[in-house]
C-alpha cells in the first residue's frame, strides 16, 4: 500500500470526511518519502473570521456549563483518543516522520493531558483572602475567558494542541486552532475525534466549540488580530513570536508563547557516563532533533571529555536512520528540504569557526524528495555562532569546560531559555544548577535529558522562548480570568486604608 493510500484509510477510520482531502491547493506531504498525500482546501480570511465568531457564540453557552461537567467532555475526548491511539499515532508518523514509539507517545501525551484536565475540572480553585474590614469576605473567582486561539507547529502537531484544548475546554473556553501548514491531516483527525466526543457528550456541547482553520499565514493573522480572541497560545520559532507577541500586546490580548529552545546539558566530573550517554543520545538525536526541547549544546568537563567523546561519536556513527514506517530505525527524516538546508548552513558555519563535524550527511533512502540525515556531532572550540542559535535539526555542539561557574555562564549565554540539564552526582553542583543563579530556563533537570517532559509540570521557558506556560501545574490560570470579590455582610460601610468619607 502506498503512503497516500494508507493515509486515506487511516483518515477514514478516524472519521475525516473524504471530500476534505482533495481538490484544494494546500499540499500535504509525508517526509518519509516526500510524496503528496492530500490536497486540502484552505479557509479564506473572511471565513476564518466567521469561524471565530461562531466559536465565540459557542463560548457564551459553554461557560455556563459547570466545570466538572465540562470535564466530562474532556474525559470522553481522552476515551476516543485511547480507542484511536494506534491510528492517530501512525498518522503522526506519516505526517511528521516520527518513529512509531514517538508517534504513539505523542498520542499518549494527549491522553495524559486529558486525564489531568478531567481532574482539574473539579479543582479550578480560587482563594479566600483575609480582609481588613469587619463583616466582610474577600475571595477570588475564576471565570471562563473566551475563545482561545491555538497556533501549533509541525513537530508536535497533536500533543501541543491537546495541552491547550484540554485546559481551555475545562476552563469553559472555546478553541480555534490554526495548525502548521506542514501537518494539516493530523489536525483534521483531531477535529473528527473531538466531534465524536462532543456528540457523545450531547446537546450541552455547543456547535462550534472547536474550529480548525486549515490555511496559511493570513489565516493565522486573523486569529491573532481578532478582538474576540482574548488569548493566543502560539508554538513555533522565535521569529514567529516576535511578530505575534507585539500584535497581541497591541490589543491587550494574552499570549502564551512557546518559541525556540537552544537547550544545553552540562556533564560534570562525577556524572554517571552510561546514563549521560543514553540521555544525550535521545535528547540530541531523537525526533531527528526536531523538538523544542532537543539537546543542542553540551558542556563536558575536561576530566571526562576523553572518556565520553569517543563513546558519543560511536553512538552517532551507529545510530540507525531510516524509514520510520517500515524499519525499526531510531531516527526518521527531517520534515523538508528547508530544514535540511538550514542544517547544512549551520554545519558549514560551525566548520568555518573551527568545528569538527561527525555525521551530518544526507541520504535519499530511495526517495529524491525525502531528507534523511545522519545526526551531526560537532566539537566546537568555543560557543560562537551558530552554537548560539537554534537550528531545528539534529546537530549537537560539544564544548569542553574546566570551571563550573564558567560552564553555567556559557549555559545561560544564549537567547533562548527553554530546557536544560546537568549530569552530576555532586549535590552542590546539582543544587547550584537548580538554584537562583543556576540554569535560567523554564525546565531544569538533573540526570535526565532536556526533552521528553511529562504533562504534569508547566511547560515553557524564559527569555526568547517567550515566557508562556502550557500543560500541567497551574498553567490553567492563563485560560481563565480572575475576579477579586469583596462581600460586605455587615451593616456598616468601613473603607479600606482607614479612609473616611462621611456624607
Ligand atoms: C515541543 O517540542 O514543542 O518535552 C514540545 C518534550 C515533549 C514536548 C515537546 N513532551 O520533549
Automatic annotation (TrEMBL):
Which EC number(s) does the record attach to this protein?
Answer: 1.2.1.3
Name this polypeptide is given? aldehyde dehydrogenase (NAD(+))
Q: Which domain of life is it from?
A: Bacteria
Quote the subunit structure annotation: Homotetramer.
Keyword set includes Oxidoreductase: yes
Q: Give yes or no: UniProt keyword NAD.
A: yes
So what family is this one in? Answer: Belongs to the aldehyde dehydrogenase family.
Q: Per the database record, which ranges form the Aldehyde dehydrogenase domain?
A: 29-482
> In which organism is this protein found?
Mesorhizobium captivum
Q: Which Gene3D superfamilies match?
A: Aldehyde Dehydrogenase, Chain A, domain 1, Aldehyde Dehydrogenase, Chain A, domain 2
- What enzyme category does the UniProt record give? oxidoreductase
Q: List the keywords (alphabetical).
A: NAD, Oxidoreductase
Q: Extract the PANTHER family matched here.
A: ALPHA-AMINOADIPIC SEMIALDEHYDE DEHYDROGENASE
Instruction: Locate the active site.
Output: 258
Could you tell me which Pfam families the record lists for this protein? Aldedh
Amino acid at each position: 500500500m502506498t503512503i497516500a493510500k494508507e493515509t486515506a484509510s487511516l483518515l477514514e477510520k478516524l472519521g475525516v470526511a473524504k471530500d476534505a482531502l482533495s481538490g484544494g491547493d494546500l499540499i500535504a506531504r509525508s517526509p518519509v518519502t516526500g510524496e503528496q498525500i492530500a490536497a486540502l482546501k484552505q479557509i479564506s480570511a473572511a471565513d476564518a473570521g466567521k469561524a471565530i465568531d461562531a466559536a465565540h457564540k459557542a463560548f457564551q453557552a459553554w461557560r455556563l456549563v459547570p466545570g466538572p461537567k465540562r470535564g466530562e467532555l474532556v474525559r470522553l475526548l481522552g476515551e476516543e483518543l485511547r480507542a484511536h491511539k494506534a491510528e492517530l499515532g501512525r498518522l503522526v508518523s506519516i505526517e511528521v516522520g516520527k518513529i512509531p514509539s514517538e508517534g504513539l507517545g505523542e498520542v499518549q501525551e494527549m491522553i495524559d493531558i486529558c486525564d489531568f484536565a478531567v481532574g482539574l475540572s473539579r479543582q479550578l480553585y480560587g482563594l479566600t483572602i483575609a480582609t481588613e474590614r469587619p463583616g466582610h469576605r474577600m475571595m477570588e473567582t475564576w471565570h471562563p475567558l473566551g475563545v482561545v486561539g491555538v497556533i501549533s507547529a509541525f513537530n508536535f502537531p497533536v500533543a501541543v494542541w491537546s495541552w491547550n484544548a484540554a485546559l481551555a475546554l475545562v476552563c469553559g473556553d472555546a478553541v480555534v486552532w490554526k495548525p502548521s501548514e506542514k501537518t494539516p491531516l493530523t489536525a483534521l483527525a483531531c477535529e473528527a475525534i473531538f466531534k465524536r466526543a462532543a456528540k457523545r457528550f450531547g446537546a450541552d456541547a455547543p456547535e462550534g466549540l472547536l474550529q480548525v482553520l486549515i490555511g496559511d499565514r493570513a489565516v493565522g493573522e486573523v486569529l491573532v488580530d481578532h478582538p474576540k480572541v482574548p488569548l493566543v497560545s502560539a508554538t513555533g520559532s522565535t521569529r514567529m513570536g516576535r511578530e505575534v507577541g507585539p500584535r497581541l500586546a497591541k490589543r491587550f490580548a494574552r499570549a502564551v508563547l512557546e518559541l525556540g529552545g537552544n537547550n544545553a546539558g552540562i556533564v560534570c566530573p562525577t556524572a554517571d557516563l552510561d546514563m549521560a550517554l543514553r540521555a544525550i543520545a535521545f535528547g540530541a538525536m531523537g525526533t531527528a532533533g526536531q523538538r523544542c526541547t532537543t539537546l543542542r549544546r553540551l558542556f563536558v568537563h575536561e576530566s571526562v571529555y576523553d572518556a565520553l567523546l569517543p563513546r558519543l561519536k560511536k553512538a552517532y556513527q551507529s545510530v540507525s536512520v531510516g524509514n520510520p514506517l517500515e524499519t525499526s530505525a531510531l531516527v526518521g527524516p527531517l520534515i523538508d528540504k528547508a530544514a535540511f538546508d538550514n542544517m547544512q548552513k549551520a554545519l558549514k558555519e560551525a566548520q568555518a569557526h573551527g568545528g569538527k563535524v561527525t555525521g551530518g550527511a544526507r541520504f535519499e533512502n530511495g526517495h529524491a524528495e525525502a531528507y534523511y540525515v545522519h545526526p551531526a556531532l560537532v566539537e566546537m572550540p568555543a560557543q560562537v555562532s551558530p552554537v548560539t542559535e537554534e537550528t531545528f535539526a539534529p546537530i549537537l555542539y560539544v564544548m569542553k569546560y574546566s570551571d563550573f561557574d564558567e560552564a553555567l555562564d556559557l549555559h545561560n549565554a544564549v537567547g533562548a531559555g527553554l530546557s536544560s540539564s546537568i549530569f552530576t552526582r555532586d549535590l552542590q553542583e546539582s543544587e547550584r544548577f537548580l538554584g537562583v543563579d543556576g540554569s535560567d530556563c523554564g525546565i531544569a533537570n538533573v540526570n535526565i535529558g532536556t526533552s521528553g517532559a511529562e504533562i504534569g509540570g508547566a511547560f515553557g521557558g524564559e527569555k526568547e522562548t517567550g515566557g508562556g506556560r502550557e500543560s500541567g501545574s497551574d498553567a490553567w490560570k492563563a485560560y481563565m480570568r480572575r475576579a477579586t470579590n469583596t462581600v460586605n455582610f455587615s451593616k456598616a460601610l468601613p473603607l479600606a486604608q482607614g479612609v473616611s468619607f462621611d456624607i
